[in-house]
Structures are given as C-alpha cells and as structure tokens.
Amino acid sequence: MIQVTAKILEKEEVAPDHYRLALDAPLISKDASPGQFIHVNITSQYMPLLRRPFSIHRITPFGIEILFRIVGTGTKLLSEKRQGDELDIIGPLGHGFSIKNNAFTAILVAGGVGVAPLFALAERLRQFTEVRILIGSKTKTGVICLEKFEALGIDVQVATDDGSLGIKGVATDLLEDFLATSASPQLPIYGCGPMPMLRILSEIAHLYSSPCQISLEANMACGVGACLGCVAKIANPHSPSHFEYKRVCVDGPVFDAREILWR
Amino acid sequence: MQTIEPDISVNIGKLKLKNPVLCASGCFGYGQEYAELVDLSMLGGIILKGITLKERHGNPMPRIVETSAGMLNSVGLQNMGLSRFLREKLPLLSNIPTNVIANICGETPEEYATIAKELSNKDSIAALEINISCPNVSHGGMLFGQDMMLTFEVVNLVRKQTSLPLIVKLSPNVTDIASIARAAVDGGADAVSLINTLLGMAMNIKTKKPRLANITGGLSGPAIKPVALRMVWEVCKAINVPVIGQGGIMTWEDSLEFLLVGATAVCIGTANFVNPKASMEIVQGIKDYMKQHKMIELKAIRM
Ligand SMILES: Cc1cc2nc3c(=O)[nH]c(=O)nc-3n(C[C@H](O)[C@H](O)[C@H](O)COP(=O)(O)OP(=O)(O)OC[C@H]3O[C@@H](n4cnc5c(N)ncnc54)[C@H](O)[C@@H]3O)c2cc1C
Ligand SMILES: Cc1cc2nc3c(=O)[nH]c(=O)nc-3n(C[C@H](O)[C@H](O)[C@H](O)COP(=O)(O)O)c2cc1C
Ligand code: FES
Fold first, then answer.
1. What tens digit of pLDDT does each residue of A164-206 get?
2. Which residue's CA is the closest to the ligand 1 atom numbered 17?
C-alpha cells in the first residue's frame, strides 16, 4: 500500500454517466490483484471531504484503471477531471479475490457498475480457465464492458430490468438458468453489485453448493482498517453472539459468501 | 548564517513528546494500520482506539456518513476488549517508534479503574487518555463527561490506580466545558484533551430515514473547528494543566490556531482519513513556521 500522485493517462466516457480512467501508477499496479481497490482523494477542498473507494478495473504494467458511475458529488467531480490531471490515490487496498487454479469454468456475476472489478478478475482467470460473465443492468445503456469481455473470448450474457438488451430480468436469473442446466457441479462464482443482488447470489450459490466470493461495498473513511466505519456482519461461531463486524476495507471487500450474515 | 533547529518538544505531565502532534483516538487504529503510509517516528505520539473492559461489537451499518466539510460516525466503540488487547495488540506496540497513549472507556467508574490498573506498568504504554466523552455508547462514555461530580469521581478513582500521566478527554456536548475541565483537574488529571465529537444527525430525504443506523453520531472534521477552538480557549483560561486541542485540524495553520489560544499539543483525527500524511506535514509546517520567524521554542508562537 502506498500513497502516490497519479496522472490520468486516459479518460473515456464508456456509457452515459459511466467513466473509465487509466492512471499512471506502476508502483500500485505491481502489487495489485483483482478485487482490490484504491482510495481516491477527489479534491483538496473540504467538499467532499473523504476519499472515495474504487475497485481496480484493470491492472497493467503502467498502472491501473478504474471504472465508475456518477452517483453523487464526488463521482461527479471525478468525472470532470481531464487527461493529464493528477489524483492523490492510496492503493492497492483490501483483500481481493482468491484465485484457485482449477479446471472449472468460472462464473462472474455483475450488477451494474459491479463489472468494474470483474474485468481485472476475468483477465487473470482467462489465463488458465474458461470464464463466463452474466451482466445485469436496469437498461441497455448501463450494460458496460460487453465488447471488452467478448474481445477476451469470454462468453457474455445480459439481463436488463426492461428487456432492452438480453433477457428481461436480473443477472441472478441468468445464473439460476445456467446452473440448472449445467452438467458440471459446484462451479466457482464471483460476484459484485448491489447488496440485494449479492444476497440472492449467495442463496443460489448455497443451493448449488458452489464456492462463491462476493465484493461488498460500504461507506468508508480511512480505507486502511483504522476507523471501523466500514464493517460487514460476519458469522463467527467462536463469539458468544455468533457474529462479529469485520472491516470491508481490509478483511474484504471480497468475502466468502457463506460468511456473511445478511440480517 | 546557520539556522537553529527549533525545539518543539512539549511535556504532558511527566511525559515528554518530541513534538506537539498526536494522532487522535479512533482515527489511527493501533498505529500499525498506517505504518506503510506514515513515518510514525515523526509523530509526537499516537492515541489508540478506545479500549473497554469487555469486547464490543459496535453499532450496525451505516456507521459513517459524510456531511458538509465533516463526517458523522457511530462506530460505537467497537473493540476487542481489555484481555484480547493485552494478548493481541500490546505486544505489537513495542515496534511503534513513538509514544503510545491508550484511550480507555468504561460503563462504570470501577471499569475505568480496572482498565487503568491493567494498563499501568506496561512498557509500551506511555500515558492514559480517559474517554468520558464517547457519544456512541448507551452506558457510560459521554454521560460521565457531562457531569462535574461523575467526572471527578472517574478521574479520582483512576488516579489511585496508576502513576501514568492521565489525560482526560472532554465532551463538547455540555453547557460549561470549563467547569468539567476543572473537575477533571481536581480529580487528578495531568492534562485534558478536547473536543471529542459533537453529537449530530443527518436525514436521507429520499427514504425519509436517518442516514446512520444508530440515528445519531459524532461530528468531526473541519466543520467543527471553530467550536473546538472556542472551547479549547475557554478551557485554557480555566485550568493550569496542559490542554491537548483537537477538532477539525487539517493543516499546520489550523494547529497553530489551537496553539495560539493556549493548547500545549494538538491531535489529528479525521484529517488522517483524508491525507494520512497530514500529521507529518503538520509537524514539518510548525517547524518551518518557527524557523521562518526565528523562533527557537514552541511557546514563542504565542508571543
Ligand atoms: C471497495 C469499494 C469499491 C468500489 N468500487 C466502485 C467502482 O469500481 N465503481 C463505482 O462506480 N463505484 C464503486 N464504489 C462505490 C463508490 O465508492 C461510491 O459510488 C462513491 O463513493 C460515491 O461517492 P459520491 O460522492 O459520488 O456519492 P455520495 O454523494 O457520497 O453519495 C451518493 C449516493 O451514493 C451512495 N453511496 C456513497 N458511497 C457509497 C458506497 N461506498 N457504496 C455504495 N453506495 C454509496 C450514497 O448512499 C448516496 O445515496 C466502490 C465502493 C467500495 C466500498
Ligand atoms: C471514526 C471515529 C472514531 C473515534 N473513536 C474515538 C474513540 O474510540 N475514543 C475517543 O476518545 N475518541 C474517538 N473519536 C474522536 C476523535 O479522537 C477526535 O476527538 C474527534 O474526531 C475530533 O477531532 P477531528 O475533527 O480532528 O477528527 C473518534 C472519531 C472518529 C471520527
Ligand atoms: S474504512 Fe476505516 S476501517 Fe474500513
């Protein structure tokens, strides 16, 4: 983990309100692994005050890329940065996906901008296994990175709430269909997206006894495990109350789906 | 002409700090979390996350929301409790190349005393900060810091258990902070630190629900600096022991404001989240300012 000033090498509007930034940060990329994130200081003013976390979307020898959606003040300001501008970032942070080299097809499930970390993961997994990604979004314009996954030779399926692209439904519908018809059992699943989606994903994975890793989100302050602001409720049989709050920023953001207590 | 390196060391009771900059409790973990980003040896000291007698899970999520130039937190003193702290964290503290101050919180005066006793005579703990000001717990915490008699009682009981320098952390959520500060000094405090967070709240206008699961939380960051400064000024006038000022300090200029109204040292809290190097930059900023104005002692700042 280091704090560096990284130049924006490329900026691309990948879809309405969705941007990709390539950052010159070789010292971060050399240690980065899929599922980790960076903590970005968007402005030196006090509004917004805190850094904003973004998953590492791509890891290259020159640096890293992030992919984000505008949801509020911070992401709006970030979208107004230009190529050549500099960003104060800390990374790589957190505990990413654990990647096991086995022969099974890996199934990636993304909700909306949840595709962001899954692209770095796909690039890594692709080196030794078959990868399939199921992308869900409200509507066609929110389905991002489709061509990029296809260019990697990855099988992509899409679901949209309004049926404007792919099937009408959600990404977890695609997953259920796939698992129900698949001959091979216990395919490893990797998910990122909104909490309600991840919850359903975990239930499906449990049903099919598939190992499932999911990347959680939480409001963060420090990003390094110091403030305890970003916790998730995790099962702990050794605790009298059978749970503990673990920090999403260091113990996660990627957790084994079985560990998470959803209520 | 050779420039003389200014002496910026300060004393908090019998504890000598190489400079007046500390990292605040709850904002710097146990030091290790920031070790890759911050040269800890440059700091005057660090204050650990609050320790309670028993393990505390803390409050449900969301625990943090950002507000105008500040943040609300309702962490609720999540910590592993005294016995696990002694087993798991204490041994790591000897690697920290600066003064380590433990922050303690109890539900009863006796709990404070028990924790204080256990943490005394530990080589790696240089002082105790008694937290009578945590706004996010339902028993103890801030309730003690809102009452002169209880403040006196807690401090007095702890004083009898330890010879470590005692810092009492005061709550801003009171009508007359100077009188609480006096009660702390009467009870045996070697120093006071203030302010802890201001009780606050934020609503989500879409869901019409509070933005924190705990409904209320403690406000910190630049938004609280003027309130903090006013209270530090009031307390400095009222007592004769060192005052550690904090609340919204982001830069060395902010820290000078606190030193100017009489604070002996400052704590850096929320600023660490924004810029982990803030505390180091503040130490350097104070030194540079003194060199530029040809000051050789910290107290010259006030003249
Ligand atoms: C580990 C991690 C990785 C992330 N990776 C990505 C990514 O790759 N791409 C991306 O677009 N976003 C990502 N996010 C979410 C991103 O951090 C938030 O969208 C961003 O912080 C919002 O900032 P803002 O100032 O624009 O919005 P704010 O004004 O702070 O908030 C606007 C709205 O967004 C919600 N929000 C704020 N922070 C978060 C959050 N952390 N998670 C969920 N909702 C939030 C708020 O509740 C509010 O409704 C990630 C979050 C985490 C914790
Ligand atoms: C996330 C968070 C956790 C905190 N935890 C503690 C704590 O455990 N004990 C304590 O005495 N103060 C705690 N504080 C208060 C800080 O130490 C500090 O007094 C306060 O935040 C004001 O300073 P600042 O504006 O520079 O952050 C906490 C503050 C924050 C933001
Ligand atoms: S954001 Fe501070 S502990 Fe995770």
1. 999 999 999 999 999 988 878 789 999 999 999 999 999 999 9
2. A53
Q: Look up the CATH number of the domain holding residue B293.
A: 3.20.20.70
Name the minimum distance, in Å, from the CA of A59 to any CA of chain B.
21
Q: State the complex-level ipTM.
A: 0.95
Domain boundary among A49, A72, A93: A93
CATH number at residue A57: 2.40.30.10
One-character DSSP codes across chain B: -PPPPPB--EEETTEEESSSEEEPTTSSTTSGGGTTTS-GGGSSEEEPPPB-SS-B--PPSP-EEEETTEEEE-----B--HHHIIIIIHHHHTT-SSEEEEEE--SSHHHHHHHHHHHTT-TT--EEEEE---TT-SSSTHHHHT-HHHHHHHHHHHHTT--S-EEEEPPSSSS-HHHHHHHHHHHT-SEEEE--PEEEE-EETTTTEESSTTSEEEEESGGGHHHHHHHHHHHHHH-SS-EEE-SS--SHHHHHHHHHTT-SEEEE-THHHH-TTHHHHHHHHHHHHHHHTT--BGGGGG-
Predicted TM-score (pTM) of the model is: 0.96
**Is the CB of residue A221 below 6 angstroms from any atom belonging to ligand 3?**
yes
Domain count, chain A: 3
> Which of A44, A63, A93 finishes a domain?
A93
Q: Which residues line ligand 2 (CB under 6 A)?
A: A 227, 229; B 24-27, 49-50, 73, 75, 77, 103, 131, 134, 169, 196-197, 220-221, 224, 246-249, 268-271
